[in-house]
Amino acid sequence: MILKRLSPIFLFFNSKQWLTVLFFVLIWGISTLGYWKKYEWNPSSMVNFGYEFALQNQTETPEKAVLFKGEKGDLGAGYDGQIFYYFSRPLSEFHLNWPKGFDESYRAPRIGYPLLIALFGLFGKTAAIFGMYFWNISLTLLSYFYLRKLLDEDTKPYAILYLLSPFALGSYYVLVSDSVMVSILIIAYYYYVKENYFPFIILSSLAILTKEPALFLLFPLGLAALFRRDWKRIVVVGSVLIIPVCWHLYLAYRFPNWRPGRLTDFILPLEGLISYMESIWRLLAGGTNWKDLARLLSRFPLVILFFLGLFLPFTGKVTKGWEFRISFLLIMFMVGTAGYYHFWSVYENVSRMFTLSIPVLLLLNKEDKTIRKQEYILLTLFILILFLVKVLLISRQLGYQVGF
What we know:
This protein is mainly alpha-helical. 65% of the residues lie in helices and 2% in strands. A 3-stranded mixed sheet has the order 1-2-3. Helix 6 packs across helix 7, helix 7 crosses helix 10 and helix 17 packs antiparallel against helix 22. The protein is globular, with a radius of gyration of 21 Å.
């Protein structure tokens, strides 16, 4: 087995945690500098401000921010990092006015990340951008050590996969909330295992408010407590919904057109995968240059990973760690029902959906060493290599300007 041959490498890094952290800093640092280099070494570039939205929210946009002019058809729309930044600004100013131009129906529930950014935003707009970097990096590192405490000695060497996850790196690369949500959730789960329930409830609530897929781990935990008739834990897990429900009730009052069921509009079983495969066929049939084909095929390893992820929970002794098996399947359900337009058409959008799968895989491996994990782990490492190649060699500079 290839994974067994790589075991000495995992064991070596496990014995030298300072080297593991240094490797993490090196990979994330190279990715960061590779991005900054394209845009005059300006850290605001990773926030992905779109000129269209920056113009509508000019008073809250940093003076020397990189503003993307956009490509044909997107009118300088930028990317999701700007939404979290702009929504953090009213929180820093102690009001809840939604920024102009953004759809509140499925973004407004995700207040957790903007709330964290707003703590830095109290010191100004530039500090808010620093906060986006700070929370992504510091929470990933902190949750890594919490995750190690949750794992047994046989599984701990593989914890480095959490730090080297291409999916967490992809989330950080555009300064969005996926890695932040996963980090908070891992820390929360640690307190759940230690039966320290108050921080678990607060942190789990924050994780849900950061991004809804946090429920993909919390829901199976509730099922496990129900199955074991552990009434205390049933109440504890149920309590994590109180704060998110209160926030949703406020949104229903604040935005008359808002509805919690809006997210179901994005559930399109296999539509994204089928449309993606059709786009490959059309490109091959019509003929194109290799760069366009390379960009399109960059998502193909994620297709393979999806099918490996569907298979993995049914390997080994299925009665062991079944709550983590359910969690893993829920993550794959999210990937499989993601539509093409909003997700599979953009590498970053579909890649980030796998972020939670890495810590869940490690927690499952702790419960059952016989799961078939080799292929999933090796393909994840291969995707990391491809991501770094994409960042350093393939990604092109987009049209932009600095400030207005």
